[in-house]
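RECORD TYPE: inverse folding
INPUT: structure tokens
STRUCTURE:
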């Protein structure tokens, strides 16, 4: 008879003494091999819990170290050796994976304490709120769902579920911007696509850490399978002990798990936690278990989703383009859509629409969309749909923008934002951030008062409390955001994305000391690169606050000419348009676009340099010629 051997990890403060277990122990998951569905989940629970199980020969038990011991663990192991590699605290709510962090924390010395604003200090966040399980042990001290996070953002997230935020329904709180400085956000659940079925407030981390959050949840509901049915008051849980997650949240977490695969950071943390408390997160070691349990019980899903069908491409302000498509279907479930513009990947979304960043006027863009399921199967590409953006010859601006900046003597400091979009704009989605003295990140934030808005043709002025010029023109006073000194960058943000800037982030050189800047009348759109030529400069304490003039110059498609190509007559009164094309230029295709950007006529064969337009209605059209000299765009009027 073989003797069962039970290994119990004893409490230790000297974590370095157990560094021998730096990977998955041999045989750790043997008793789970071949299982699927909730049977697999229950067996994984037995492997990672704190109970001696007779069917597991060599068992490594979860030994709770207690909540307070996590301070030492975080100081030693939750460090940034992956992004800036500076050994600061690795906080998913402040980490900027693609650039400089907005702020950094030194282990132990920057631990909360008290906090008032984002960037003050860090503390420990329970990814599954401890109110869910009434602060009971071992859940409260379980390292697998305890993360170091900024104190104010931890409080901002509060006990809200994780979900996909509707950017048009963000929640405002004092002392913090929304989105936060790294883009995490709080607001109403989108209630569309994979997040359909829930309308309450949710918290959404940045894409870099969504998979981490998903795999923490799958660990938690597996580890505490025998208790979780008692915690159904939490909106993410459905009161069962098998599926556990309510349908909208299961769909969201499956999507996040697929979009953000296991990272080296997670692998290292899993190993360190195993050394610390004796159990592992199975879904980091074997992410395929997630689909085998919650994805229909199939060990191998090789069926790709159906092919999405793009239903529309529409020009938004800016211009930006929004692509919309019908939901794809899948044998398990579609978790994400990948969007390509002109053959280049531009982004992934769980919605059935995607809005691009700023694009150019009078330019053709072509889109494809792919559907992806939880197993990573990808559909065929959608049929390509192309769209030409219209000319910038309107009489309204595309977006709010800075229109005046005063950096005068003493506290004579103010910012003015103008609205020339053609309609009143609520400021709930906007914020301003300041970067002091060449700091590479934003160091101060300002949220507009709740309910504030700007009428078309009007401006909004934020002044310093010590302002002595144009004091009657201020709409709000805020000393923090007007604490600039002529070398500090100031950014205007919409839904957490920078849309306009004064100064250069990370550059401490003086660009407007003791100076008033007024935006040129011809500038009708914001700019994320500070361009001095867009501004008129005035002497210190000069004030024009309270109004701004904007002149709409528009553009002319003739600027796109790459050869001496013309079309005539123009306007045309008949059914034929003629093209004058030099002999050394070859035309391969001519496309006619309405002023709404719709392709209404495409011609590949041109006879006698003429094209029939008999089927086109009267109006204005953009005509794009694909030529050996490049693309050339002309404007045509049909009378």
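DESIGNED SEQUENCE:
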């Amino acid at each position: 008879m073989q003797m069962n051997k039970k290994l119990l990890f004893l409490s230790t403060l000297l974590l370095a003494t157990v560094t021998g277990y730096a990977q998955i122990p041999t045989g750790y998951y043997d008793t789970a091999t071949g299982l699927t569905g909730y049977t697999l989940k229950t067996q994984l629970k037995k492997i990672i819990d704190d109970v001696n199980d007779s069917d597991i020969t060599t068992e490594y038990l979860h030994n709770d170290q207690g909540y307070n011991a996590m301070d030492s663990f975080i100081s030693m192991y939750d460090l940034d050796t992956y992004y800036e590699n500076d050994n600061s605290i690795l906080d998913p709510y402040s980490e900027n994976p693609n650039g400089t962090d907005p702020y950094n924390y030194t282990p132990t010395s920057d631990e909360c304490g008290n906090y008032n604003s984002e960037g003050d200090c860090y503390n420990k966040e329970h990814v599954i709120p401890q109110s869910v399980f009434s602060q009971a042990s071992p859940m409260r001290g379980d390292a697998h769902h305890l993360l170091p996070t900024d104190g104010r953002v931890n409080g901002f997230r509060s006990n809200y579920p994780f979900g996909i935020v509707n950017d048009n329904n963000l929640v405002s709180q004092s002392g913090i911007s929304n989105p936060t400085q790294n883009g995490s956000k709080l607001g109403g659940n989108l209630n569309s696509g994979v997040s359909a079925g829930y309308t309450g407030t949710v918290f959404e981390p940045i894409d870099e850490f969504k998979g981490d959050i998903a795999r923490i949840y799958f660990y938690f509901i597996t580890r505490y399978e025998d208790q979780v049915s008692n915690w159904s008051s939490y909106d993410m849980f459905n009161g069962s002990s098998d599926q556990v997650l309510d349908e909208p949240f299961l769909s969201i977490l499956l999507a996040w798990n697929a979009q953000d695969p296991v990272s080296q950071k997670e692998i290292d943390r899993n190993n360190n936690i195993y050394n610390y408390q004796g159990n592992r997160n199975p879904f980091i070691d074997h992410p395929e278990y997630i689909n085998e349990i919650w994805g229909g019980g199939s060990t191998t899903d090789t069926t790709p989703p159906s092919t999405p069908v793009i239903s529309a491409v529409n020009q938004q302000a800016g211009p930006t383009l929004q692509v919309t498509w019908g939901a794809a279907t899948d044998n398990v479930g579609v978790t994400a859509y990948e969007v390509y513009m002109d053959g280049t990947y531009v982004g992934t979304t769980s919605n059935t629409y995607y809005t691009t960043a700023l694009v150019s006027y009078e330019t053709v863009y072509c889109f494809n969309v792919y559907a992806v399921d939880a197993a990573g199967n990808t559909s065929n590409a959608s049929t390509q749909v192309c769209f030409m953006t219209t000319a910038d010859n309107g009489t309204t601006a595309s977006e709010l923008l800075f229109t005046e900046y005063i950096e005068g003597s003493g506290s004579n400091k103010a910012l003015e934002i103008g609205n020339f979009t053609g309609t009143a704009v609520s400021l709930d989605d906007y914020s301003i951030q300041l970067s002091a003295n060449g700091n590479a990140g934003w160091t101060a934030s300002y949220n507009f008062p709740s309910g504030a808005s700007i009428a078309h043709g009007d401006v909004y002025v934020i002044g310093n409390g010590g302002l002595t010029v144009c004091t009657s023109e201020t709409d709000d006073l805020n000393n923090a955001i007007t604490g600039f000194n002529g070398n500090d960058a100031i950014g205007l943000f919409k839904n957490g994305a920078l849309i306009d800037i004064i100064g250069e982030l990370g550059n401490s050189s003086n660009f407007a000391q003791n100076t008033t800047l007024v935006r040129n009348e011809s500038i009708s759109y914001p700019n994320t690169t500070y361009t001095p030529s867009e501004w008129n400069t005035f002497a210190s304490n000069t004030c024009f606050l309270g109004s701004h003039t904007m002149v709409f110059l528009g553009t002319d498609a003739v600027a796109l000419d790459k050869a001496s190509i013309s079309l005539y007559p123009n306007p045309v009164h008949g059914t034929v348009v003629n093209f004058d094309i030099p002999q050394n230029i070859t035309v391969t295709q001519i496309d006619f676009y309405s002023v709404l950007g719709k392709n209404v006529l495409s011609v590949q064969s041109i006879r006698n340099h003429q094209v029939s337009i008999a089927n086109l209605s009267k109006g204005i059209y953009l005509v794009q010629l694909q030529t050996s000299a490049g693309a050339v765009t002309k404007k045509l009027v049909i009378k």
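NOTES: DSSP finds eight helices and 33 strands in the chain.
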